[in-house]
Amino acid sequence: MYLFSSLAGSLGISASGTWQNLGSGGWMTAAAFFLFAGTGFVVATVKFTKSKTIIAAGLKLAAPKSSDAGGLFGSPATAKTLLLLVFAAALFYPPTATSFWQSVLVTQIGIYVLLAIGLNVVVGWAGLLDLGFIAFYAIGSYVTAYLVGSLPPKPPWGTMSPLFAIPFAIAVCLVAGVILGGPTLRLRGDYLAIVTLGFGEIVRIVAINADDVTNSTRGPSPQVPHPVINLGFTRFEFGLDQLQYWYLLLIIIVIVVVLFRALEHSRTGRAWAAIREDEVAAQASGVNTFRFKLLAFAIGASTSGIAGVFFASDVGFFTPDNFILNNSILVVAYVVFGGMGSLPGAMAGAAVLTWLPEFLKDQVPAEDRQMWIGAVVLLMMIFRPGGLIPAKRRSAELHDYDHHESLEVSAVPAGEGMGAKA
């Protein structure tokens, strides 16, 4: 497909360039081949194990299968298959979508998925309720606007492409997370939530009042330019095509998820889990709770900073009204809806709840839209309180494994009981 699309583009036949004008058929064919190859890999790598039995008191008892404990997603083959479906949809559906849905994929679904991943570290893993998370998103956006020369103060070393602002945004958001967490993380529960809420509002109000720094409600001027990647032998310039941003965002999300997945199973991840379950017990066990909570705040803030860079470079223009309290609450809702502590759940929750309002625009009247969204959230909390894709630990807390066959002997032969005759 690459060859015939490039050939058609070079000859000017029904295509303006490589991968252009393939149509839905071409992209669905690519998705089908991708799934064929992926399922072949899953089948080739699946491990078949024989069922084990336990012999106790003369009775044979079947041991529960290890995949049962994880429910639908406990089987590695099932998890790999679902991952293949997600990748196929992410890679090959966007080119077939309309320009409106491509914009929704990038500016709403993709960016809020990245924000949910970051907040999941704070809320899902460390158990800290943060209602000012959107403030770090704003900081990342304004740092990007400053570094590209779109704010009144100009960087003394000259301007740069928005993509090169990512490490600077991460560093500034890390420092902001430490500044917020240092004096406040000794608080717990509702008190911590109130302080973080205040921090988010402080950042927004400062952005409005600091006219000489942020340009107030007028936003960046000139607008934040689109990114340019110049590798010497090739130059790639982003434009108004949202597909370019979507695939770049997809790469960023994959990198962040891989790093966070490793972090979840590290010593730091286990410390966060201990703090979330019982902070007093974790501290008594030797866990430096303050240090690990501060680390969770800083890492979550850095992820939000990356989202801010991407948002600023994509839309070009933004104001303090893009970073209101309601957006912080929405990100918390996405994490809870998807499943606190679950990386796939946080991403699924953000994707579903950002797609649903846009889908309902053409289905129900505007005044009824919020009622339908509220009904979906309410039904989810009633019938699946652990979230859309709950974490294994959370699922175990809400649904005990009573459905498994017990390993204890339920009946003892009469000749072997305590009253048996010698």
Protein described:
With 422 residues, the chain is mainly alpha-helical. It has a domain at 97-324. It is 61% helix and 3% strand. It is built from 16 helices and 4 strands. The strands form 2 sheets. The chain has a two-stranded antiparallel ribbon with strand order 1-2. The protein has a two-stranded antiparallel ribbon with strand order 3-4. β3 and β4 (235-237) form a beta hairpin. α4 (99-125) runs antiparallel to α12 (289-315). The chain is globular, with a radius of gyration of 26 Å. The model is unreliable at 49-73 and 401-410 (pLDDT under 50).
Largest sheet, spatial ordering of strands: 1-2
Low-confidence segments: 49-73, 401-410
Largest sheet: 2 strands, antiparallel
Quaternary form: single chain
Query: What separation lies between the terminal Cα atoms?
Result: 81 Å
Sheet/helix structural class: mainly alpha
Indicate the proportion of strand residues: under 5%
What sort of overall outline do the alpha carbons produce when their principal axes are compared? globular
Count the DSSP helices.
16
Total strands? 4
* Arithmetic mean of pLDDT: 81
The SSE string, one letter per element, is HHEEHHHHHHEEHHHHHHHH
Give helix % range: 55-70%
What is the alpha-carbon Rg in Å? 26 Å
